[in-house]
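Task: fold both queries, return tokens.
Query 1:
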Amino acid sequence: MLFARGSGDLSRLIESAYLSDDLISNISRYGNSAECREINKHLTNHFGSDQKLKILDIGAGNGITSVNFSLAGHSVLALEPDESNHVGAGAIQHLKDSFSLDNLEIVSAFAEDLDVGEQKFDLVFVRQAMHHANNLESFVKNTSRFLRAGGLYFTVRDHVIFDQKDKDLFLKSHPLHKFYGGENAYTSDEYRTALQNAGLQIASEIRYFESPINLAPLDLKDIEDRVAEELDNIKQKLKLKLGSFGGLDFVSWLYRKFKNDPMDWLDERKMPGRMYSYLSVKS
């Protein structure tokens, strides 16, 4: 990750993924992101507004979610097996000290091995971590046992693949996998089965284009703007060839259907490792 931070070609990606070496900036930018706002909407819908929650944050990374939850007044246990000062538990500890967060606890362990005794949480939150599980069933079963009845198991931004060929393409195309070799992905059926086998009821499977959570660092307006721009480009191209007739919506539709459709990128099947999120409730 340190090498990737120093690579000019990847600097924008590192920044947009909240992995820069400016830890305070990462916290602020994530807290103001469309992703974070959308996550909070789901929490409000489930728990109501102004409730202070007890949260288990699995795979907390450099603390962008744990710290923002803590700053919002929630009680947070951040689980992060990497003890690094750059992207792991050491970074979270630095942020905890910087913000004087007495409501944030940090544990270094793998999700499959976590043991917090008889503690029960209102929310088990997992951002970009479930797909890293060595054993998906064990990951979900062990972490969900600390969730209270009626609590929310909220996993966000997990890579979904359709088959092994799709997975191979995803790993080959991932910009950071070659640096640390830690990427992974499962099928939608595998995620859903692991959640259900752990006694969780899936309330919603949020697919890639259905939420700003999965789209980040893009948002829905970015997608809409790009669609509008590409449709306009088609019309302008057809006008040059066919005159005013080429500006008709019907002619544009025919061109896209039978000649070339630049909207193919909106088909998630053509996106290696597309991201899904899952809202599940413990019965």
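Query 1 returned. Query 2:
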Amino acid sequence: MRVVLLSFALSATGCVVIPIADLLKPKPVKEHVLTEGKGVFGKDKIAVIQIEGVIASRASGNLLSLQVNSVNEFHERLKQVRDDSRVKALVLRISSPGGEVTACDVMHQEIFRLKSDREIPVLASIVDVGASGGYYVALAADEIYARRTAVVGSIGVLIQSLNVAGLFEKIGLEMTTVKSVGFKDLVSPYKASRPEEIAVLQDVVTAMHERFVDIVDVGRPKLGRPAVSELADGKVYVAEKALDLGLVDKIGGLSDVLVRAAELADIQDPTVVTYRREGTNSDAYTIKSSVEGARMSSDGQGLSMNLQIDTLPRTRFLYLWAP
């Protein structure tokens, strides 16, 4: 393997050689205390993990501005919870319109594995948006809370492709494609899609939609399959309506969720923690709340994954609300 080195001149006659890999290597994820518990049970913890922005399965950015793989970041934070026997409950603080189908599904399954291994309560707290894949992830929780002004729903899947064939024709450019079989350049941006190609993609989208419906059916058992199928039409709802429809369990903010998490975990005055990568200035959120009268520190920061859709669009299957 070839190692690229970066040199900094310190004098006219010498330099220090620093591996670029060392500069770019991410700092470890560490626990950050939001509020310290008191008394006998003060060492018992509730962990808060924030899921913010578009959920993606790969890193993006450039040398000077790197954005992490959100699935890996989520996995690292869950590992902190898994390995800490003092964590008695987990709260997922969600502010996401969803994202890539597989990325959302992986995160959903990771939560289920954690629940199976640790047998701790998991609650979802939807801050402002818990739509499509954001809601998909929330469905792994035992209970779902939403702030009164939150938007919930958008159960469905889509795939979008940018077609530049007309533009190429106008400016005199042409893409030559040599393919072994007819569907190999399915959804190519350089040609108009044929009806039979759209039909192939529709079959895939339908299958992924059914998977989403299955997840809602399991996560919201009181609804019943017919009601779930009726709700799986892509619509979003304000929290009160989502509550009426059975998509969430309660209206409330993070303080309400933390009180409920402590109740389910049978602990009093817990220490509330989150996780962040050392050396980063997370702008995810500032927590100002209380757990049975204990005020959290005003500098509390959660996980800011900085998840964004790529500047150059690529064709992906998405559990995404994209108004």
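Both queries returned. Flag for query 2: The chain has one domain: 27-162+191-320.
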